[in-house]
Amino acid sequence: MRLPRSDVRQAGGSGTARRLAVSALGIFSFFLLWHLAAASGLVDRIMLPSPLEVFHSAAAIYETGELAQHIQASILRMALGYAVGSALGIALGVILGRIAFMEWFVGPVLQMARAIPPLALVPLIIFWFGINEGAKVFLIAWATFFPVWINTLLGVKGVNPLFVRAGQSLGAKRGTLLLRVVIPAALAPIFSGLRVALSISFTVLVAAELAGAIAGLGYFIQNSALSFRVDNIFVGIVVLAILGFIADTLFMALLYWLFPWYRAQQSGK
Fold first, then answer.
1. Residue 117: inside a domain, yes or no?
2. What is the value of pTM for the model shown?
3. CA-to-CA distance for 77 and 136, rounded, in angstroms?
4. Which of 20, 156, 183, 258 has the largest CB neighbor count within 10 A?
């Protein structure tokens, strides 16, 4: 028996509220355990400041405008590197997924390159690009590219051949077939690759900012370590975690808004 639409909305709303409540409880529990560990005396407070001490340090840095400057610099680098890497990953994933010769020719090289950690490229990138923004954007784009590429490739290759044949039988040309059949059918794995790449871009951001940055959260963390300010190190780490959480939440909200069917697919309904 199908529930009335109002009942469905009410059930969905209660489920969302319950999920948010449980998530908030999990976050609160994490910070509570952190506070208890810092207050227990088992660890030196200099090495493990409490969440409240980290908050006070963050507030003091924020008042000077320094923290906002580092956040802005990191977000701009991450966004540009993520956009470039994702665009290239989707493009090459579609090409290699549809053209077997290109997959045989380029695929092994990309698979070998995928095993190279971005941190290993830092010295080489400095030689190539110097210490300008290009080096940092390149490293983020490098790390972002591979999860998007491999997920797009697998998604395109996994498209049901019946869909393709149905489009061909209706007279769809190659371009129309690609845009109207292949890519829409591969959207779910592409979205998964984009989401994984988003978190990786934040991870690589710190390594990228080691390449001669004068601003950014990675630079802030490194500079705090050199001055033995463990509380400021925690500030940088917590801010990175919060930014990553916000970016992932906004990404999924935008995805659910643009493609409502994806939410139902993810929930298994």
1. yes
2. 0.82
3. 7
4. 156
